[in-house]
Structures are given as C-alpha cells and as structure tokens.
Design a protein that fits this description.
- The protein is mainly alpha-helical and about 425 residues long.
- The protein has one domain.
- The chain is built from 21 helices and no strands.
- α6 runs parallel beside α8.
Length: about 425
C-alpha cells in the first residue's frame, strides 16, 4: 500500500508532538522527511525558514511586546495599576473580581499576551482576593485566567500580529477591530462576577479614602500613559505597530527604572533572559510553520479545500459557524499559535472567496483561540493559574465555566454582527 509523503509528514508532526518534541521542531523534521520522500531539494526547508523570518518585518513586534510585558512585571507598574483599579471599582460587591477584570483591560493595552497578563497581574490579585479567605482561591484563579484572555483581544495583540503575517491583513485595523469585542468581554465578565458575588455573598471592599485618591491616580499615571502613547502613536500615523512595540518596551523600561525606580540590575537581566526564552520558543514555532506551509502549498491543500467546500454551497454564516466549531475544538487540543500558523492559512482562501472581511475573520479567529486558553485539556491559562495557586485543575475549570460560556456568547455576537468588529476600523478610514 502506497502512503503519500504528505500523510507521513502530518503523522510525524502528530507523533513527535505526542512524544514531547516541541511542535516547531516537529514541523521542521517532518518537512525535511517530506522533501526527502518527494525527491525535492532538502535545502528548501532552510530556505523557507530563512526567507520567512527575514522578510517578515512585522515579526519584530513579538519579542518587543514580550519584553514590554516582562519589564512591567518586574517594575511596580502592575501594583500601581491595581491600586488605581481598586479606586475605580473596588467598592462594589465582588470588588476585587471587578478590579481583576478592569486591570486586565488596562494592562491589555501594554503587553499583547494573555500569559503575560495572567502572570503579571495574577500573582498579585489572586493573593489579594484569597487573603483572609475573602474569596475561594479557585474562584480567584478562574476569574484571573478568564480576564487574561482580554489581553490579546484589546490592542496590542501578539496573536493578531501572527494572523497579519499569514493573511496580509492590516495590523492597525486588526488592533482596532479587537477593541469592541474586548470591551464586551470585560463588561460581560464583570456582570457575571457581580451576580456570582451577590449569590455567594462575597465581601465589599472598604472604599479608598478620598484624600488618597489623587496620590494613587498620580502614582498610576505613568503606567496608564503607556497604552495611550502606544495607541495614539500607531493610529496617529506617527509609528508602525512594530515601532510601537519598540516604543512600548522603551517606555516600560523608562517607567520601571527612572520614574518608579523599582528595578535592580539583576531583575533587568532576568527580564531580558525571560523575554529571550519566550521569543525563541515562538520563533521556532513560526520557523517550523514557514517550512510546513511550503509543504501545504506544494500539495495545494488550500485549493483542494476550496474545491471540497464548494460542493456544499456554504454561505458566509455557515462557513463562520463551521470555523468557530472547528477552532473551539482545536483550542482544546492545540496551542493557539500553532492553530494560527497551520490551520488558519488553509481557511483564509475560502474566507476570501466567500467575501468575508479578513479583519473581521481575524478577530473572530483570535477570540476563538483565546477561549481555547481556558478550555481543558490544553487550556494553557488554566495550567498557569493551577501551578501559581496550587489548586486542582478541575476546581478552577468548574469556577471558570460561567466566564467560558460568556466568552462563547461574545464570540457568537461578533460572528453574527461583523459591524461590532468593523465599526471602529471604518471610523479610522478602513475601506473593507
């Protein structure tokens, strides 16, 4: 029985991944085997990787956003933001849950990474919520993990940078498209937290004395200015998103070291090292995807998928529904960047053929992938919070169910009503 080189290639990626080899390495190895079995030049794998990495200026934004997030975590920016959020929403029932969500919405304008948000804010806010038994630790972990998915939806966003890489959609308009869905998620989570807090009688925080509010606001002002500088710089035409990422990292360094004076040389070294490790991990994954995407192109998989789907006479709504179901299932099993780099490029030609706007499609895809961070068995945010708090994974999942359901409702709304995504980009001149 003849087995096609492509089938062997896919089987190797899955098999090596199951055995524990990082997915980026698995794709590179499988691509080399495919080239060998197909009688093609083995050097093509290296050529695809190098051409892809060197020709993608947009990729430079990823390590810079990661560095900005790490610099904010070691400085006292996170502490200042949390105190400011406590002033805003701490006095309401379930106030610390609200603080968690609002802080993530503000922090979202800086890091672009859900994991960075969960680690940066989570370490502090979970301790605040669990202190003296005010909230169950599992609930604190669940709302922290849920709120962290807002980060890559409200701009800037590392997953949107990756999507722009594979789709050629405008990063700036993708960022703008994420604003309304991100705010909808934040408001939805706060409503859910309020209802849960009332039903379980969670405490109300003591209001911050009026005389302290000006000082807390002034202390938080440099931290609050980062998203303002970043977004007005990008949408004011002063800098590209990549240059904006560099500005974010530089400003985070300046605020942490000069304004707040909260960083030692050792912490700075560790932040750069941590950022380098995270960048290397993502870089290998992107390199592997460039190599594997060559295989997908040679095998004409997108064309074949188009022909296959054309038999079913899909409407836009039906196709988007199918994509949502597919990505929600894959989100339970695969890491988000892997889905963006391998699965999404295959779907984009069909989306184009059906006349689906690529900015709208990109935001729908990213929201899907963020929900995948909360869904077991591969919900990465769940693992991060379980490891951070020492709580059983099952307990955190049970507490996170209302937030996961709400996130899926928001996903349904932005799928059915594209204007929720495209309204703000169109105001800023988008013609799509």
């Amino acid at each position: 029985m003849h087995i096609s080189p492509f089938a062997i290639c896919v089987a190797m990626i899955v098999g090596l991944g199951i055995l524990g080899l990082p997915i980026g390495h698995s794709m590179i190895v499988a691509t080399i085997v495919y080239l060998l079995l197909s009688g093609l030049d083995l050097g093509t794998a290296a050529e695809q990787v190098l051409n892809g990495l060197f020709n993608s200026y947009v990729l430079i934004a990823i390590p810079l956003f990661i560095l900005a997030a790490d610099l904010m975590n070691i400085g006292s920016l996170t502490d200042k933001l949390l105190r400011f959020c406590l002033v805003l929403v701490g006095r309401f029932r379930g106030g610390l849950g609200h603080v968690n969500v609002v802080a993530n919405m503000i922090f979202a304008g800086m890091s672009g990474s859900a994991i960075a948000d969960a680690v940066g804010i989570g370490r502090i806010i979970v301790g605040m919520m669990a202190k003296d038994g005010r909230y169950p630790v599992a609930y604190a972990a669940a709302i922290t993990a849920s709120a962290a998915i807002i980060g890559p939806i409200i701009p800037p966003s590392i997953p949107m940078v990756v999507y722009a890489l594979v789709s050629d959609a405008s990063i700036g308009y993708l960022f703008l498209g994420g604003v309304v869905p991100g705010v909808l998620l934040g408001v939805g989570f706060m409503v859910a937290n309020s209802l849960i807090a009332r039903r379980r009688n969670y405490p109300v925080e003591a209001p911050v004395p009026l005389r302290e509010i000006p000082k807390i606001t002034i202390d938080a002002f440099p931290a609050l200015m980062l998203p303002v500088i970043l977004l007005f710089g990008i949408y004011g035409g002063v800098m590209t998103p990549t240059e904006g990422a560099a500005a974010a990292a530089l400003y985070a360094l300046f605020a942490s070291t000069v304004i707040y004076r909260a960083v030692t040389w050792k912490q700075l070294y560790e932040a750069i090292l941590t950022s380098g490790k995270a960048t290397t991990s993502i870089g290998m994954l992107i390199a592997g995807a460039f190599a594997f995407n060559y295989v997908v192109t040679v095998e004409r998989i997108p064309d074949g998928l188009n022909v296959f789907l054309s038999q079913f006479d899909f409407s836009r709504a039906t196709f988007l529904l199918a994509v949502n179901i597919l990505l929600l299932i894959l989100g339970c099993l695969l890491e988000g960047t892997t889905i963006l780099l391998i699965v999404v490029p295959i779907l984009i030609p069909t989306a184009k053929a059906l006349g689906i706007d690529l900015v709208h499609f990109g935001v729908v895809v990213v929201v899907n992938i963020m929900i995948g961070l909360l869904t077991p068995p591969y919900g990465l945010l769940l693992f991060v919070l379980a490891n951070m708090t020492g709580q059983p994974l099952g307990s955190i999942v049970r507490q996170a169910v209302p937030f996961i359901v709400l996130a899926i409702v928001v996903l349904g709304l932005i799928t059915i009503f594209p204007d929720l995504v495209l309204w703000l980009p169109r105001i800023m001149g988008y013609k799509g």
